[in-house]
Specification:
The chain has 125 residues and is an all-alpha fold. It is built from 7 helices and no strands.
Length: 125
């Protein structure tokens, strides 16, 4: 699902960002930069400070947050995020499909790339 309002913090937006991290479309430093951008914003939770310093295995990120934020999305939208990782020169560790299939999903779902660019405007690829 496409998130229209990416300039305000929401649990759905955080869910998208974490999905990007798990798909390796972003790295830890980009997660930290995103969190820093929302510090002090209306409705932003205090755990963003903890995420800026987060250096444990990424599967432990939910312990820092205290719950699993939800971005409602299809498998194909997630595959498109793997496609972004590939375009950025990263070969994700556990891709569920081939690289060509991931890139095909990204081409088929340009709204995911558009949303990614809105959420991470400083990430160039």
């Amino acid at each position: 699902m496409i998130i229209e309002k990416t300039e305000r913090y929401s649990d759905e937006l955080l869910g998208f960002v974490i999905t990007c991290l798990f798909c390796e479309a972003i790295d830890r430093s980009e997660l930290q930069s995103w969190c820093a951008g929302f510090l002090g914003a209306e409705g932003a939770p205090d755990f963003l400070y903890d995420l800026i310093e987060f250096d444990e295995p990424i599967f432990k990120i939910y312990k820092v947050i205290g719950y699993v934020p939800n971005w409602s999305h299809s498998k194909n939208e997630e595959y498109a995020l793997y496609g972004i990782a590939l375009l950025r020169g990263t070969v994700p560790y556990d891709m569920p499909l081939s690289a060509a299939e991931m890139l095909d999903e990204l081409a088929r779902l340009p709204a995911i790339q558009h949303m990614f660019r809105k959420v991470f405007p400083s990430v160039v690829f």
